[in-house]
Each structure stands twice: as structure tokens, then as C-alpha cells.
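Example record

The entry below shows one chain as it appears in the dataset: sequence first, then C-alpha cells.
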Amino acid sequence: MRRIGWLGGLCILLVVVSIPVFGDTIITKSGSVLQGTIEFGIPGVISVTSDTGDIFTVQRSNIKAIRFSDEGGKATVETFDGNILVGTIGGIPEVIGLRTPAGDVQSVKLTSIQEIRFPAPGQPSAATTTTTTPPPAATTGAPGVSPTALAGQVKDAYNNGRWGFTLGLDTGYQLGFSSLNGFGMPTASIGVNLLNGGGIVWRSYFVPSEKWAEKTALRIAQDTPGISLDDLIAETKKKAPIASFYFHLGTNWIIWPEAGVGVLFHLAPNIHFDLGGALDILGFPWLSIGVLITF
């Protein structure tokens, strides 16, 4: 069996060596050789994570070949400047689109690919019969930074909180301070309710975790090669929930303890709509409704 495996590998090697390097070449595990221009599936920048956890980024224009292994999704990336990187590749989807010299676009599953070869910079594409050219590698935004690294920076920005002043046009909370995460969402508040005799108000808001921010940013970065950090933060913010539940503790008329729950709707980066309620120790209800503004 081992001899047959060696003979099979030798045959594939001979076929690969005999292929003229002209345009992009995809070699499947079944031995098929496809040539043309890769239209989608290989972003402008890919990342390679080694077994030790180190992350390397490679521009598409510098990639000479990618050889895929059956062992845990690992691959070997060979570059034109002589480097060889081994590890897990990030940023490549499950399907790659190859435009053939005839003009057809053929979808190839990543799991069926053994090797992808790229022409040297400046070499003409095999799909010269069409006017379609592959998109250039991203030169704006964050070239050279992997999606994983960008997502980590978004997580850091999300955790970079601050304290802010809070003004409430609200029946349950009029004046106080709030801790805000990096996306401007309140995570906790302490203040006073002047309408119920100067009672103390404390709230804890249930906002998305840092893992949510990191995973959401990673998905966006993988789908948008070359995106800048600022744009990635802005796009991640758009995916945030429009409301946060909160738990409320406080006092009514200064001395009577109360507890309640509510929902804070995020209308704008610094403007929130409050809807909640509480009961004090005597069973007296109090409704919180209005607008909270953070500074």
C-alpha cells in the first residue's frame, strides 16, 4: 500500500511539473488540473497561524503556491520571496471561483483542492480571452494585518471603557454617572431619582460580551479583505443589539429599598430610551420611562 501511495504521489508530481505555469492553477485531490484566473475565494491578504500560535500575513501577490494537507486543515504557503509557512490558513472561504480561458467560472470546493499555484507577478493570465481581470490586492485599509489580529483590536477597543455623565429626562433616573464600553453602551449606572424623594438608583446593564465583539469583527474582516480598523469597528457596532436589559436596585423616598428590571433602547451613540419598573419594600410600584443622555 505504501508503494502504491508513493507511485500515486510521484505521478501527480510529474503531472504538476509538466504543467506550464500560465495563470492560476488549481490541482484537485483527484488529479484534475484546472487553469485560469481565480475570481473569488483568495483575498488580498491571507493569514497563517502556526502550531505555536504565531500569526503571519501574506499578500496574495506574494503567494507562489498553497498546498493543503489532510491533517487538521493545515496548509503550506510558499512565497515568491523564498519563505515557507506551515499552519492553519484564515480568510479563505469554502468555495473558490476559477474563470477558465473559455470564459466560464467554475466553483471548486476547498476540501477537494490539493494545491493552488499562482503566476509570478507580471505574468499574463490564462483567461486572456475575456476582459475580466482579478481584483488587485488591497492597498488601503489594513494590508498585512490578518482578520484575527484586526478582530483582537476591535475586542480591545470594545473593552476600552470610560465613565460618563448621565442626564435623564426620565421618571426613574434624572442625574448620575454611567460606565460605558468602547461602543458607547452603558454597562452600569449610579444616580438619583429626584421625583421619588431623592432616591438612589443603581443599574447593571446586560450588554454583549467581548467574545461577541471579537467573533462579529472576525466574520466581517474575513468577508471584507483590506478593511481598516476604524471601518471594522463601525461595522461591528452596527451588528450590536438595539437594546440592553438591566437590573435595578435603589431606594424610594431615600430609605425604602426597591428593585426592578427594564430595557434600555439605544437610539443613537449617546441617546437611549428607558422603559422599566420597580417595586419598593412596601409594594409601591414606580415606572421608569424617558430618555437618558450620556456625555
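Notes for this example: The first strand starts at residue 24 and ends at 28. Residues 141 and 226 are 5 Å apart (CA to CA).
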